[in-house]
Structures are given as C-alpha cells and as structure tokens.
DNA sequence: GAGTGATCATAC
DNA sequence: GTATGATCACTC
C-alpha cells in the first residue's frame, strides 16, 4: 500500500500520474495477480486503484481518504468515454427513518466529494490491457444536488409508506434503487404497507449512467 | 443493445 | 447480515 496522501493536491497528482497506464502495469507494481475476468472479482479494479492512491479506510464505513473527506470511485467507460455501468453509492436505509432528511442522509455525505477515476471497461479488452483515464475531483453543483435530492425524496417517501417492493430501477431520473445483496434470498427489515415490519431484499442507491456521463462530459476538459 | 434485477468476493 | 469494492447476465 502506498502512503496516504496528505493533501487534496497530492492525491490529485498521484491520480494524474496513473492516467494512461494499464491495469496490468499497475497490478505488477502492486504485486497483485490480474484475474482472467471480473466475473468473480468485481471489486478488483477499485481495490487496485485504492492501493495505488493510498486509500486508508479499508472496509470501514468511512470515506476512502478519511482525512481529506474524499471518496474514490472507479467508473468503467467505453471507447467514447461514456460510462458502461451505473455506479453504486451506498445501501438505502429502510427503517428508522424518523426525522431523516436529505441534509443528513448517508448518500449526500458520500457524494459530497468524490474522486472519479475512469477505467476502460469494454469486455473485449483484456483486463490487463485496459487503460486508466484522467481523474476528476468532483462535488455536486447546486443543480446536480437538486436532481439527486429530488429523486432521493421520492424514493424515501415510498420506503416510509411501505412501498419498497413497488420500487423498481425505473424510479428516479438520476438516482435509482436496486437490489444490493449477495443474492435474491437475502433479507433485511423494512416497513410494510400498514407500517408493520416486513422482510425484504436489501436495496442500494445507484447513479444512472446518464448522470455520471454528464459529470465526465461537463467537468472533463479533454 | 440497453437497462434492470441479480450476483460475486471478502472482512467482521 | 452489513460494510467495502462493483460487474454480470438475463429480459425486454
């Protein structure tokens, strides 16, 4: 593991130095084996970048760069720089929502400051040959935060009203709610239609590709 | 082909 | 089960 960057500038310089390199090169430096594909190693790319940038949090529920309050997210992009996948942000709280508002929600804090690192994700590029792109240190603009907040409030309203199971990934313009579990048999507690507790699949918030594509386009001066 | 719902690994 | 890291893969 590389030393933890002490300033935002140091982190950014470190991330910039990785741009243009391949995952194979980075894995060799870190002395990590490159898996044949990501089918059984979905978090591999993210963890490789965490190693190189000196992320300190490990598996703890705090930002990757705790001291800087910055979250690291890798994002798979295609040949045109467009995101190939939605981006998982955090699990959605399904109970104990009394008094919860956007300002003190987990997701807002997660997205307050994010270092996005695009990585080639086309499946026909061998993992070791995929290139890392230029990093983007981002905070939501007032417009972006408003979009996120609006979707969040709609989804949370449904959860409070016991309509979790009626929510699909089609709800929300930029933020969606989808299963986040080991498999479809996982259970967690939530509110039922009459306020009684029910068991349901754990859900997570995901940023839609349209939204992340907008970020990369808007803030990336290529 | 895109998008939604399902899934994988690992630590605690 | 929950937290971390996400992509897979089936259906439309």
UniProtKB/TrEMBL annotation:
GO terms for biological process: DNA modification; mismatch repair. Gene3D superfamilies: DNA mismatch repair MutH/Restriction endonuclease, type II. GO terms for molecular function: DNA binding; endonuclease activity; hydrolase activity. Keywords: Cytoplasm, DNA damage, DNA repair, Endonuclease, Hydrolase, Nuclease. The keyword DNA damage applies. GO terms for cellular component: cytoplasm. Residues 53-151 form the DNA mismatch repair MutH/Type II restriction enzyme Sau3AI domain. Pfam families: MutH. Signal peptide: none annotated. The keyword Hydrolase applies. It is found in: Cytoplasm. Sequence-specific endonuclease that cleaves unmethylated GATC sequences. It is involved in DNA mismatch repair. Belongs to the MutH family. HAMAP family: MutH. This is DNA mismatch repair protein MutH. It comes from Photobacterium lutimaris. The lineage of its organism: Bacteria, Pseudomonadati, Pseudomonadota, Gammaproteobacteria, Vibrionales.
């Amino acid at each position: 593991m590389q030393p933890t960057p002490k300033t935002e500038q140091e982190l950014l310089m470190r991330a910039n130095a990785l741009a243009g390199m391949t995952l194979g090169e980075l894995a060799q430096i870190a002395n990590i084996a490159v898996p044949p594909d990501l089918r059984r190693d979905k978090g591999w790319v993210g963890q490789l970048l965490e190693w190189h940038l000196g992320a300190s949090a490990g598996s703890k529920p705090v930002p990757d760069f705790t001291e800087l309050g910055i979250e690291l997210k890798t994002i798979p992009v295609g040949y045109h720089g467009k995101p190939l996948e939605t981006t998982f942000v955090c699990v959605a709280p399904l109970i104990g929502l009394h008094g919860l508002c956007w300002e003190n929600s987990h997701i807002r804090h997660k997205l307050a400051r994010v270092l996005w690192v695009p990585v080639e994700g086309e499946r026909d590029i061998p993992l070791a040959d995929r290139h890392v792109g230029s990093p983007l240190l981002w905070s939501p603009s007032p417009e972006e935060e408003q979009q996120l907040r609006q979707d969040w409030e709609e989804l949370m309203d449904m959860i409070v009203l016991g309509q979790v199971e009626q929510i699909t990934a089609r709800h929300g313009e930029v933020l969606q709610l989808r299963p986040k579990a080991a498999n479809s048999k996982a259970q967690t507690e939530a509110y039922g239609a009459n306020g009684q507790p029910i068991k349901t699949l754990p859900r997570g918030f995901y940023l839609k590709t349209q939204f992340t594509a907008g970020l990369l386009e808007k803030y990336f001066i290529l």
